[in-house]
């Protein structure tokens, strides 16, 4: 376990724990009176965002930042994100995480280094952690949106051969996972706002989360619509091919029937001995072809 004190003043102390074991976290929990269930939540890799507050002055918030794995996992939440557990007390804020992240460096550089240390509050740090966590979903949303636009262009310009179903599935899988995480984050923020005095900061976090949620929801809808259009256009193309084959069959079926009759090896077929049998047969075939052609034209099949 890596334990660091990121910040400390007269009011509170910010302690960061990276990749602690259960035994190490239990020791910290005894010191700061954490709830046992929140310890289990902190150690569970795929736990979704949540907020809890006990009867004392401490509270627990779990958030997840976007960080895509290089391998496919059954749990999409774990594949596309990692968690940060936050314990907030009257004189401390403790962050627990497994995956290395630059979120804390950003907070120290953009927030802590620019303020008088005595004016820094634990809720101010909490606000920055949540805000930076939500912002990690913006870049992947923009990238997926660009990919969707490119795929949409390929579909509607008719170049369907360049479209790969696995590409659409991959985008939908990622966007759905992010949407799920942001949904739970929104619920956690609602609980946090109910449990604490509503401020402009909490409202900003709420609106920021709603914005990200809307982006990923839109991507999921767009991919689903593109998939439907792709399958529909593929079906239409198959129908056009079948229509072409059917038209050819309609022309050649009666001709094949005539050829089949006069191709039979019977000893007595009077027409075969007739002088004009061959040209008459060709003329009948030509009349049949013209009849079928004009009939198809009338019915607008051609």
Question: What this model shows, in words?
Answer:
With 302 residues, the protein is of the alpha+beta class. It folds into three domains: 1-135, CorA soluble domain-like (Beta Polymerase, domain 2), CATH 3.30.460; 137-238, Methane Monooxygenase Hydroxylase, Chain G, domain 1 (Up-down Bundle); 239-298, Methane Monooxygenase Hydroxylase, Chain G, domain 1. It has helices at 22-32, 36-43, 76-80, 103-110, 122-135, 138-156, 165-195, 200-261, 270-273, 277-298, and strands spanning 2-8, 13-18, 50-53, 59-66, 81-88, 92-97. A six-stranded mixed β-sheet has the order 1-2-6-5-4-3, with helices on both faces. Helix 6 (138-156) packs parallel to helix 8 (200-261). The relative contact order is 0.09.
Brief descriptors of the model:
ion transport; Methane Monooxygenase Hydroxylase, Chain G, domain 1; 61% helix; transmembrane helix; 302 residues; Beta Polymerase, domain 2; 10 helices; alpha+beta
């Amino acid at each position: 376990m890596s334990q660091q004190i990121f910040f400390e003043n007269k009011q509170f102390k910010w302690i960061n724990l990276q990749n602690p074991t259960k035994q190490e976290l239990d020791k910290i929990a005894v010191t700061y009176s954490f709830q046992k269930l929140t310890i289990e939540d902190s150690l569970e890799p795929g736990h979704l965002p949540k907020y809890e507050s006990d009867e004392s002055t401490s509270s627990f918030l779990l958030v997840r930042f976007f960080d895509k794995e290089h391998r496919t996992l059954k749990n999409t939440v774990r594949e596309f994100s990692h968690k940060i557990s936050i314990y907030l007390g009257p004189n401390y804020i403790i962050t627990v995480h497994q995956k290395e992240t630059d979120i804390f460096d950003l907070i120290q550089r953009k927030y802590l280094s620019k303020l008088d240390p005595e004016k820094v509050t634990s809720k101010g740090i909490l606000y920055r952690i949540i805000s930076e966590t939500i912002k990690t979903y913006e870049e992947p949303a923009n990238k997926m949106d660009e990919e969707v636009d490119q795929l949409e262009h390929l579909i509607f310009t008719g170049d369907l051969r360049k479209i790969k179903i696995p590409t659409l599935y991959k985008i939908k899988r990622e966007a759905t996972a992010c949407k799920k995480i942001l949904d739970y984050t929104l619920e956690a923020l609602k609980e946090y706002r109910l449990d604490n005095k509503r401020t402009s900061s909490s409202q900003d976090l709420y609106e920021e989360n709603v914005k990200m949620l809307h982006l990923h929801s839109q991507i999921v809808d767009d991919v689903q619509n593109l998939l439907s259009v792709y399958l529909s256009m593929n079906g239409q193309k198959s129908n056009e091919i079948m229509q072409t084959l059917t038209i050819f069959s309609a022309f050649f079926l009666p001709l094949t029937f005539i050829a089949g009759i006069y191709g039979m090896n019977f000893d007595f077929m009077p027409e075969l001995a007739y002088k004009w049998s061959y040209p008459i047969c060709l003329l009948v075939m030509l009349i049949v072809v013209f009849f079928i052609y004009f009939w198809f034209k009338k019915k607008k099949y051609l």
